[in-house]
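Example record used in the benchmark description.
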Amino acid sequence: MTAEQLHKFIQAPGLLNQQSLPQLRELTERFPAFEAGWMLYLKNLKNLNDASFEQELFNGAIRIHDRRKLYVFLNETDDTADQTGQKDDIFEMIFPPEYNLEATGNVVESSEEVTGTKREKPRKGAGLIEKFLEAQPKMPQINEKEAGAPSEIKSAQEDGNEDFVTETLANIYAQQGYHKKAILIFEKLSLKYPEKSTYFAGQIEKIKYLMNN
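Model output (structure tokens):
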């Protein structure tokens, strides 16, 4: 599945069908930490009322950094029947009683608050998980000298300038095509912040996927 196809499904998840399902399943198998792939795969299963949805939702939810986005995305509808009971079931599967929302920073409204009001339909191209595929706002073009080589990054860390290696810098590298440098930074961040290692692994998988497509 190409990046263009992923963008199409993000903008119009109602297009997910029997043909897209095996492609997305393969994507999650090849890139298990790729959050956008999991979100689209789960949405596809839900669209088709697939019998494996519940089990796959359990498998996928633990890989999603912000489960609130997953919950809202799965419950987006194209003015179809609003199955409130099913939404409550999905809420409980994504946020089981033992899942500490506040400890992970994902403070989520109650099920009634999330599902009780009809949300405004998002504009085309403003999908809830667009952030997982698109880079952050465009940054000025940088060159090798301005950005610094990996050896300079290592030197900056050793000198105690820990702010030098940041997620923002990694995103700048990725935007400008310095994929290996971006991956290097995310690997360092993953070691520094092990509690966010799953998130950083997803960022690395995303970059690797874009490198090959």
